């Protein structure tokens, strides 16, 4: 071949090869930008299934190494299929000079009256409530804030800037939104065992715009009400403690009011020590104030902080984290049995090997 034509021809062939490879390059870039549950740091995960765009939003505490945002706050992964997730981005960062700048625990987002409301727990260990409790611990300001945005992708702005929603002399966490039959909004939360020894689940009424409390809290039940919890569950030098974590309310298909919550159980079946447990309770009256009866745990294996959502193909699902430390997200298909919930199966096709 003539050298005059050889160089241009080689260039054209190279250009054609590059153009032909673009779709595969593009697919590789998309794959590199996506994540799956087994590799995603997830503590206290919450999924909002947003029907208008058929998008799942998975909220968790900000991880600075993933988002390059160093402030405490909330990040979100998004997905169309519950298997492939975008890299996370920050939707809420605690403002400079806020009443608390630590924590960012247990974020969840709810659509309410045309807006989106983020609930997340912050704490300030320099604002002491009591120097010492019966357990020998100092207690300090810890509680759930509420922030608002026009989109599930934020940015979220706090509706109250001078303290948490629950009384600021209560050490609380894991607030969740519940709207009763009359349309009254409530925040249901866990009152810390660090302060009360036998942790409780409580509820405080909210103003219509969720900008603050609208009355005094009411106690729903205490951790030791669960018959499977024993004194060895969380032993300390000064006696047993009883933990309440992660409440979420769910109205079943036949009108029963159910609650997911988590605690610790002392296990002896080959795994010694105390382990996180996902459990449930039911309101006898069908109303928030109960009385509440406790069910058997749904998932053990050091699993908990379960949150429910309905997938776009109509399945009731639960997301939780396991193990408690270095947690990853696990997905379960659930069955609404009316007066209780049942696990159908773990979706290991979505969350990995199920460990």
From TrEMBL:
<keyword id="KW-0326">Glycosidase</keyword>
<dbReference type="InterPro" id="IPR006710">
    <property type="entry name" value="Glyco_hydro_43"/>
</dbReference>
<keyword id="KW-0378">Hydrolase</keyword>
<feature type="site" description="Important for catalytic activity, responsible for pKa modulation of the active site Glu and correct orientation of both the proton donor and substrate">
    <location>
        <position position="174"/>
    </location>
</feature>
<dbReference type="GO" id="GO:0004553">
    <property type="term" value="F:hydrolase activity, hydrolyzing O-glycosyl compounds"/>
</dbReference>
<keyword id="KW-0732">Signal</keyword>
<feature type="signal peptide">
    <location>
        <begin position="1"/>
        <end position="29"/>
    </location>
</feature>
<keyword id="KW-0858">Xylan degradation</keyword>
<keyword id="KW-0119">Carbohydrate metabolism</keyword>
<dbReference type="InterPro" id="IPR023296">
    <property type="entry name" value="Glyco_hydro_beta-prop_sf"/>
</dbReference>
<protein>
    <submittedName>
        <fullName>Endo-1,4-beta-xylanase D</fullName>
    </submittedName>
</protein>
<keyword id="KW-0624">Polysaccharide degradation</keyword>
<dbReference type="GO" id="GO:0045493">
    <property type="term" value="P:xylan catabolic process"/>
</dbReference>
<dbReference type="InterPro" id="IPR050727">
    <property type="entry name" value="GH43_arabinanases"/>
</dbReference>
<comment type="similarity">
    <text>Belongs to the glycosyl hydrolase 43 family.</text>
</comment>
<comment type="pathway">
    <text>Glycan metabolism; L-arabinan degradation.</text>
</comment>
<dbReference type="Pfam" id="PF04616">
    <property type="entry name" value="Glyco_hydro_43"/>
</dbReference>
């Amino acid at each position: 071949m003539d050298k005059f034509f050889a160089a241009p021809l080689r260039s054209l062939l190279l250009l054609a090869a590059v153009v032909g490879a673009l779709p595969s390059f593009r697919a590789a870039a998309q794959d590199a930008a996506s994540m799956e549950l087994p590799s995603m740091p997830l503590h206290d995960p919450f999924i909002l299934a947003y029907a208008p765009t058929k998008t799942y939003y998975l909220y968790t505490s900000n991880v600075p190494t993933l988002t390059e945002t160093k402030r405490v706050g909330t990040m979100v992964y998004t997905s169309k299929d519950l298997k492939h997730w975008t890299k996370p981005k920050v939707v809420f960062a605690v403002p400079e000079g806020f009443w608390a700048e630590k924590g960012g625990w247990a974020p969840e987002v709810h659509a309410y009256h045309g807006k989106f409301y983020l609930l997340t727990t912050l704490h300030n260990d320099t604002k002491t409530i009591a120097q010492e409790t019966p357990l020998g611990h100092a207690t300090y300001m810890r509680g759930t804030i509420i922030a608002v945005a026009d989109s599930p992708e934020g940015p979220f702005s706090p509706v109250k800037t001078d303290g948490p929603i629950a009384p600021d002399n209560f050490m609380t966490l894991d607030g969740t939104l519940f709207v009763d039959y009359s349309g009254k909004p409530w925040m249901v939360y866990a009152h810390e065992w660090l302060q009360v020894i036998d942790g409780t689940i409580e509820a405080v009424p909210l103003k219509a715009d969720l900008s603050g409390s609208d009355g005094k809290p009411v106690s729903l039940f205490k951790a030791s009400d669960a018959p499977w919890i024993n004194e060895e569950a969380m032993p300390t030098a000064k006696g047993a403690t009883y933990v309440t974590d992660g409440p979420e309310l769910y109205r079943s298909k036949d009108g029963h009011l159910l609650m997911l919550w988590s605690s610790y159980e002392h296990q002896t079946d080959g795994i010694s020590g105390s382990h996180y447990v996902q459990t449930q309770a039911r309101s006898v009256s069908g109303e928030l104030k109960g009385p509440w009866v406790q069910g058997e745990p749904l998932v053990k294996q050091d699993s908990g902080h379960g949150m429910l959502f309905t997938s776009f193909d109509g399945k009731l699902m639960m997301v939780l984290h396991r193990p408690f430390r270095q947690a990853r997200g696990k997905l379960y298909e659930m069955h609404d049995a009316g007066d209780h919930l049942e696990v159908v199966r773990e979706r290991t096709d979505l969350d990995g090997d199920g460990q």
